[in-house]
């Protein structure tokens, strides 16, 4: 973790100065290449700023985040490395691109712990990759919109796992919303990669039984809770000197890792 933070500080300094089925998960399969240009998502969800081209092999979308203030980039070679103070960020995020590779296996099995890469039931049956892409995209944009550091960056996010709860788990035992994604930060002017790829696990307790019913009555659906959680995760990752640390959630979390 400390090594990754050292890369972050050094990289940004340079930027300133110049649930039991037998499905087999495929999250270890190679990802498609991230897009080098702005692309739009496939039919089935809306982006804040849809663009022209589409990539059929992945649910992909990029949102350019509007900022009222554009911070000038320092030109001095001895401007010094940036540091991250708690609650602050050295970056402002220009755009967020989220990719959900089509190689990820979707499970529709109504079991306690289905063995797929994507488990999502709160939207109607349809393009689960696209549905997951929109949830993650909305969360990430919300989470980074308030950041206003001196370095303009683009975030590229590749989802490798998105396990919400099946109907059976939702109305009985509960479980874990198990979400994993890779994060790359690039200089939005030069396109240079500023940090090593970081794999982030962002697990969240999934309510079950009466707790789930009570939560839904308050408007706290799975989608609402996951969106709020991921927005907080990305904000912590970009403002905390140690980055985001996944919570320890006990037995069900361990089962999700098998």
Automatic annotation (TrEMBL):
<protein>
    <recommendedName>
        <fullName>Lipoprotein</fullName>
    </recommendedName>
</protein>
<dbReference type="Pfam" id="PF20569">
    <property type="entry name" value="DUF6778"/>
</dbReference>
<feature type="signal peptide">
    <location>
        <begin position="1"/>
        <end position="21"/>
    </location>
</feature>
<keyword id="KW-0732">Signal</keyword>
<dbReference type="InterPro" id="IPR046705">
    <property type="entry name" value="DUF6778"/>
</dbReference>
């Amino acid at each position: 973790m400390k090594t990754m933070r050292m890369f972050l500080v050094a990289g940004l300094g340079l930027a300133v100065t110049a649930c039991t089925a037998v499905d087999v998960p495929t999250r270890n399969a190679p990802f498609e290449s991230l897009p080098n240009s702005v692309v739009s998502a496939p039919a089935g969800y809306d982006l804040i700023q849809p663009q022209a081209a589409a990539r059929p092999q992945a649910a992909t979308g990029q949102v350019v985040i509007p900022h009222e203030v554009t911070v000038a980039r320092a030109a001095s070679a001895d401007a010094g490395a940036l540091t991250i103070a708690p609650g602050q960020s050295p970056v402002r995020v220009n755009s967020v691109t989220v990719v959900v590779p089509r190689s990820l296996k979707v499970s529709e099995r109504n079991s306690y712990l289905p063995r797929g890469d994507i488990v999502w039931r709160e939207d109607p049956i349809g393009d689960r990759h696209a549905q997951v892409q929109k949830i993650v995209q909305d969360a990430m944009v919300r989470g980074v919109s308030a950041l206003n550091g001196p370095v303009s960056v683009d975030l590229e996010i590749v989802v490798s796992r998105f396990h919400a709860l099946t109907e059976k788990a939702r109305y009985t035992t509960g479980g874990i919303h198990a979400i994993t994604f890779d994060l790359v930060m690039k200089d939005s002017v030069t396109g240079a990669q500023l940090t090593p790829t970081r794999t982030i696990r962002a697990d969240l307790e999934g309510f079950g039984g009466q707790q789930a019913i009570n939560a839904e009555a308050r408007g706290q659906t799975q989608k609402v809770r996951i969106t709020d959680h991921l927005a907080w995760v990305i904000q912590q990752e970009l403002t905390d000197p140690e980055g985001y640390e996944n919570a320890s959630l006990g037995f069900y979390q361990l089962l999700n890792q098998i």
